[in-house]
Amino acid sequence: MSPRTPAGSSRATLITDAALALLAERGMRGLTHRAVDERAGLPQGSTSNYARTRQSLLEATVRRLAEREGQVLAPADLPVPGERRAASGTASGADGTAGAARGPAAAATPGDPAAPPATPGPEALVAALALALHRYLTHHADLLVCRYELALEATRRPGLRAFYDATGRQFREPLEALMAAAGSPEPERHALSLVAWCEGLMFSCAAGAYHRSVPTEAELRTGFGELLSGMLGAADAPGRAEPPGAATREASR
137-196: per-residue pLDDT in tens? Predict the structure, then answer.
């Protein structure tokens, strides 16, 4: 894994990208201040000046990993709860950028301030999740190795554990919002189930017995579709409990 650092990047980015490269190639034992300096092509002592302790170097590496993962998962590809249809007919996010690839927006009169927020449909969510996961598995498996190295180290370092968990919330909370917008009655539990399925698949394909059998994007769409169908299926789907009071309301009609 070579650091994928854009030209003109800051020294902090050079250092943390080099740290990720070392983690992927040599594991946690290969991550030292001196090795990072050498890998980044910086004068000896540069990494120590940036992150004086191993804990601070690990925290900076976790932060950079989250940035890199965010770039891979490409939030612009995902539907965003609460978007409104712009005058052009495409969804527009809070940052004002067009979101045509983020999924269908709810029908609304262009320019109507009272228009309801868009709700990403399950099909759009399935397609976006499959695209992001396939991109991760096929082009960025090295980042997954880094994640596992850092996660294991966090089990031995309480300070890093808290930092690692806090950083991870930036991915979990938007997923919970997406599940709620898609109609989940229990978005937190369903987001956890979705994350667990993804994590298991990622580990199997990056470091487990299926590392030579990465699913196609179509296969991932099927898998996500089955998961979301079970979570968000119709109220009369087999095995789906009726909401409290449903029978009483029906009898009173």
Answer: 999 999 999 999 999 999 999 999 999 998 888 888 888 988 898 889 999 999 999 999
Residues 6+ apart with CB under 8 A from 93: 80, 83, 99, 102
Question: pLDDT per residue over 4-54, tens digit each?
Answer: 555 556 899 999 999 999 999 999 999 999 999 999 999 999 999 999 999
Q: Using an 8 Å Cβ cutoff, are 223 and 200 in contact?
A: no
Site of tokens 């770039």: 71
Cβ within 8 Å of residue 226, ≥6 positions away: none
Cβ(92)–Cβ(79) under 8 Å? no
Reference 19, options 135, 72, 42; nearest CA is 42
CA distance 82 to 80: 6
Instruction: Please give the structure tokens belonging to residue 114.
Output: 């009272």
Spatial separation of the C-alpha atoms in residues 27 and 47, rounded to whole Å? 18
Q: What is the pTM of this model?
A: 0.70
Question: What is the DSSP code string of 13-29?
Answer: HHHHHHHHHHHHHH-GG
